[in-house]
Here is the input.
Amino acid sequence: METWRLVATGSFLLGGLVMVLVGMAQARDRKGARRGDVRRAALIGLAAVAVVAVLIAYVLPSVVAWGVVGATAIAVVFITMWD
Here is the structure.
């Protein structure tokens, strides 16, 4: 596997896990939320991150892979700095 794929996958996983944690926190803070809602948000988020990480690692061309990594980084900065 090429080095750029390893770096891109690792960078996406880092940002993706932050996004999953933010999604879990938002699910917890929702009015009338139950414990299962947070678990469901975690499972859906982790599944989506895993699928995209595998695509970056093995399938996507470099421009698309780095575009996904960049979009994830922008989303993490935007969401975490919002407040």
